[in-house]
Amino acid sequence: MSSRLENITAQRQEKIERLRAKGINPFPARFKRSHTAAEAISALTSWEADSSQPCLISIAGRITAIRRMGKISFANLLDGSGKIQLFFRPDNLNETDLELFKDLDIGDFVGAGGKMFRTRTGEPSLEVAGITLLSKSMEPLPEKWHGLTDIETRYRQRYLDLISNPGVKEVFLTRSKAIAGIRKFMDLRGFVEVETPVLHGSAGGALAKPFITHHHSLDRELYLRIALELPLKRLIVGGFDKVYELGRIFRNEGISTRHNPEFTMMESYEAYADYRDVMCMVEELVSTVVKETTGNYTVPYGDRQIDFTPPWRRWDLRQALEETSGIDFTLYRDVDKLKTHLEERNIAFDPLCNWAKLIDNLLGIYVEPHLTQPTFLTDYPIEMSPLAKSTDGDESIVERFEAFAGEMEIANAFSELNDPVEQEKRFIRQMEQRHGEDEESAARIDYDFLKALSYGMPPTGGLGLGIDRLVMLLTNQSSIRDVILFPQLKERG
Predict the structure, then answer these.
(1) How many Å apart are CA 151 and CA 262, to the nearest integer?
(2) Which end of the chain is more exposed for a tag (fewer CB within 10 A), N or C?
(3) Which residues of 407-422 are buried (b: 16+ CB within 10 A; e: fewer)?
(4) Cβ of 208: how many Cβ atoms within 10 Å?
(5) How far apart are CA 367 and CA 384, in angstroms?
């Protein structure tokens, strides 16, 4: 197989040399087109209504098929707007263009000028009067260019995936449209979009393992951010009432169909709001984006239909866990007691897990399978949410919700804790539970953030919305790799 590809590459190199010998540059710097493929077809339709002038245009794109049929030939040209047919008749081309056409291959970029018309079958086509080679393709496209199926190749060589599978491009156009819709929604609600650092002095804002790098000039260790949260809350302290950021997050953890080491979040913080206000905003935001992006509030996901029409279900976490598993976590607030109960129930668990992680695992086993339709799980144990404010009626429960759809989490939100003394206690407790009483625990606490809180932060509602998982739902994709242009992969062996 490799020798065959090498032969094709060698043949194409010979063509390049032959073209250069004829004074033809196979990689020119520019070509001015008058229309995209879609615009050319539209221009033909307009011309057919008023044909006082010939429909002359120039287009450019990649050749995806060539059909040589005696004296006439056809080719398909693909650009960013779509596909159009090229029609070649020797009588319309000069000798140089005829020679160039003989050396064209599938994959080449060309520019073409001529007159638009319809073939006898009604196909909008360009009758080519002149052709320019814009870029010679040295490598052949996949033989079945209309259906590249090898998963590894699709992810590693996304450019081939985009060329070969038209539906892939639609996924990423939908992603772009959804992100634009989120920005529009937030801007109209008076939020200010900001940018905060990717490199942090401490890895705070979430329970996750960070990527670590070294800054040589400063001679210090820095962390790629694992959350957007703490810098944004500093801005609330500084006087911004509503801020949001769309940004990349980096977590040095596992890879799965729902997890990638780098992913995109939208986080927002609103002064004088609580998690109930944020809950209403989330269902309005997501449903609006779904409707504007897909044209409907209901989208297919796998073999199901997910209806994002507000209002969404509110389900108290304690009640949800008790109804689905029979476990009332308030009866087992001690980790050893909870582990004993799980052993009695023959429920497998990691003996190294702390209490919060055990509850989170139980939610994944028993509750999440019931969360196909958009649902807010509300009011979490304080052990699971060190950055959230306790409820008025119970100090052990915090004002937090997670939004689910398609049986996966798509958003997380709090009434933000703004007591610096209490916040420091919870940070320390959280780090000790995760890392033990060591230097790493102390290093993971963002004391500058605690200093900021000590100047006073108003009551604030915070939100984290997972962009990748939302796009999975919008585009009916089961793997996060299919909605990230360049997902992380294992190195080839």
Answers:
(1) 20
(2) C
(3) bbbbbbbbbbbbebee
(4) 13
(5) 16
As given in the structure block, the two tokens for residue 477 are 């994709």
CA contacts within 13 A on the Cβ side of 110:
27
Q: Give the SS3 label for residue 108.
A: coil
The structure tokens 């509030």 sit at: 297
Please state, rounded to an integer, the average pLDDT across all residues of the chain.
Answer: 91
Name which of 47-61, 75-89, 396-410 the model is least confident about. Answer: 47-61
Pick the closest to residue 414 from 446, 433, 445, 391 (CA basis): 391
For the record, the structure tokens of 162 come out as 């985009």
User: CB count, 10 Å around CB of 448?
Assistant: 14
| Domains of the chain in sequence order | 2-141 (2.40.50.140), 163-312+373-482 (3.30.930.10)
- β-strands 304-307, 298-301: how paired? antiparallel
Chain segment 318-372, per-residue pLDDT in tens: 999 999 999 999 999 999 999 999 999 999 999 988 899 999 999 999 999 999 9
Nearest-Å Rg of the Cα atoms of the chain is 29
- The residues with which 462 forms a beta bridge, in sequence order, are 269, 414
Determine the Cα–Cα distance for residues 245 and 402; give it in Å rounded to an integer. Answer: 19
The total number of residues shown for the chain amounts to 493
Sequence-separated contacts (24+) of 186-192 with Cβ below 8 Å: 186/244, 186/266, 186/268, 186/285, 189/242, 189/281, 190/241, 190/242, 191/242, 191/243, 191/244, 191/268, 191/270, 192/240, 192/242, 192/243, 192/244
- Angle formed by the axes of helices 355-362 and 335-344, to 10°? 40
| CB contact at 8 A, 59 and 77 | yes
Which DSSP string do the residues of 36-78 spell out, in sequence order? -HHHHHHHHHHHHH--SS--EEEEEEEEEEEEEETTEEEEEEE
Closest by CA to 234, choosing from 191, 277, 205, is 205
State the Cα angle at 392 between 388 and 397, rounded to 5°.
50
SS3 150: coil
Closest CA to 442 of 450, 253, 251, 419: 450
